[in-house]
Design goal:
It is built from six helices and six strands. The protein is α/β, with parallel strands linked by helices. A six-stranded mixed beta sheet has the order 1-6-5-2-4-3, sandwiched between helices. It starts with a helix and ends with a helix. It binds adenosine-5'-diphosphate.
Length: about 180
């Protein structure tokens, strides 16, 4: 799996960036939202704050989002054109297998929506690894496997960005790539 990841990385279909996701000027950023879609803390709060009240108004019309599913809105005051809201699992509320499946569905359904809307570039935060308590290494293996499988089978989105706020998260993915290339 990792050699395939490395190949996609080299082909620029996967990128790792250390940034505030609200600053990215791309087709869509993914929001690690909660089931209400009405905002929260962490990356969700940062996205709503940067996008402005109009985002909350559109979110209110969506009637929430089930765990593992995804819904799309405009980006409003964000530099990103769209926000794909997905809900990752709260780790402790599920068996390990269920949590892995739901996290994988959150990535996959977000990518399906990006494809449906012909979005070329999409950036993910590290879904469920903050307040939702998903162990970093487990989340990395689910996220990487799901994104790889999707881009191998689909031309759109052309580029998937893993966006990290914290150095240790960024380093983990970088390590996964570099250890494969050595
Ligand atoms: P969850 O509730 O899904 O666990 P959190 O928002 O608590 O979501 O955390 C998800 C990840 O997003 C964490 O790694 C957190 O550090 C990161 N994060 C928080 N703010 C930002 C931001 N502005 N840009 C990118 N990532 C962020």
């Amino acid at each position: 799996m990792l050699s395939s990841l490395l190949e996609k990385y080299r082909m620029n279909r996967i990128r790792l960036v250390k940034a505030d996701i609200t600053q990215l000027e791309i087709d869509a950023i993914v929001n690690a939202a909660n089931n209400s879609l009405l905002g929260g803390g962490g990356v969700d709060g940062a996205i709503h704050k940067a996008a402005g009240f109009a985002l909350l108004r559109e979110c209110k019309s969506l009637n929430g989002c089930a765990t593992g599913e995804a819904k799309i809105t405009k980006g409003y005051n964000l530099p990103a054109k769209h926000v794909i809201h997905t809900v990752g699992p709260v780790y402790r509320n599920h068996t390990v297998a269920e949590a892995h499946h739901l996290l994988s569905m959150a990535y996959k359904n977000s990518l399906q929506l990006a494809k449906k809307h012909k979005l070329k570039t999409v950036a993910f935060p590290n879904i469920s690894t903050g307040v939702y308590g998903f162990p970093l290494e487990e989340a990395a293996s689910v996220a990487i496997a799901t994104v790889l499988e999707f881009i191998e089978n689909n031309q759109t989105p052309q580029q998937v960005i893993f966006c990290f706020y914290e150095e240790d998260n960024f380093k983990l993915y970088e390590h996964l790539l570099n250890s494969e290339s050595n």
